[in-house]
């Protein structure tokens, strides 16, 4: 880790630390934030975690999740915590617009800021940028961060459970973005006390009935296949959100079902939000949905998993998506072998 000595010095005396992660936090955002929080608390720092919006209820079992501050729910408390901070961590995002209005307050703070993230093109707003686009998840990077500073023995069972959650969710239960190093670290997490069977159940098998009904509706009524470009699409309108009482996190993972089809290399979930239309894109092999989101939908992420958003109608966004996809389709790609 670069700047190890400087960061070690920063952490050598107790500080008021604030940890941020992005809007619509997922398992990696929450897992990395909680893991770092438990570690820093253990070495005598006072720590607060702040998210722009609420995290999915399926993660309420995670140790410390009940202490997370949400800007949408308590902006004044969040602003006070930011102003009090003398050290800031930004996890699982690399540009301040990913934390919405809080980005302005963070940018104004003169205290040291540290980015730990695995997305492309980090913005230079922080004093220290720990970036690794080859990492499976920010949680994997937090494992390395703690290990580099104080050794694996500092990774308690509580911290290990949080890190494991982020790795599992960002790799799709070890289906992509894996490496020999990831599996070695997971083995270390198991040795630290992680009950992987229990955690897999907590992560994947606590769905509400409405989720399966929504999934069935998406696959039977809303799934559209474009065989000429090996693309699958599901779009959800505001009326669908009302009909199924869709809340934050309820559509998580639905886009991945499209990639289960042999003749689909690009998958899209396009949803109509109150003020914007959001896109969640996935791909197989060498097709970069990150480029699609970056070039056309003001977004980004990873090569095979990215997101974007546009101001416009659902029909306009679907039309634009269908128009740009042929530019990125690779007809002779043999994805399974890559």
CATH class label of the largest domain? Alpha Beta
Q: What is the strand tally?
A: 12
Unreliable stretches covering 5 or more consecutive residues: 334-338
Sheet/helix structural class: alpha/beta
CATH architecture of the largest domain: Alpha-Beta Complex
* Spatial sequence of strands, sheet with the most strands: 3-2-1-4-5-6
The proportion of residues in beta strands is 15-25%
Portion of residues in helices? 25-40%
CATH homology group of the largest domain: inorganic pyrophosphatase (n-terminal core)
Offer a quick outline of the entry.
The chain is of the alpha/beta class and 338 residues long. The chain has 12 helices and 12 strands. It has a 6-stranded parallel β-sheet, sandwiched between helices. A 6-stranded mixed β-sheet has the order 7-8-9-10-12-11.
Write structural notes for this entry:
This protein is α/β, with parallel strands linked by helices and 338 residues long. The chain folds into 2 domains: 4-204, inorganic pyrophosphatase (n-terminal core), CATH 3.90.1640.10; 209-337, Diaminopimelate Epimerase, Chain A, domain 1 (Roll). The chain has 12 helices and 12 strands. Strands 3-2-1-4-5-6 form a 6-stranded parallel sheet, sandwiched between helices. The chain has a 6-stranded mixed sheet with strand order 7-8-9-10-12-11. Strand 8, helix 10 and strand 9 form a beta-alpha-beta unit. Helix 2 (27-42) runs parallel beside helix 5, helix 5 packs antiparallel against helix 6 and helix 6 packs across helix 8. The longest helix has 16 residues, at 27-42. It starts with a helix and ends in a 14-residue tail after the last helix.
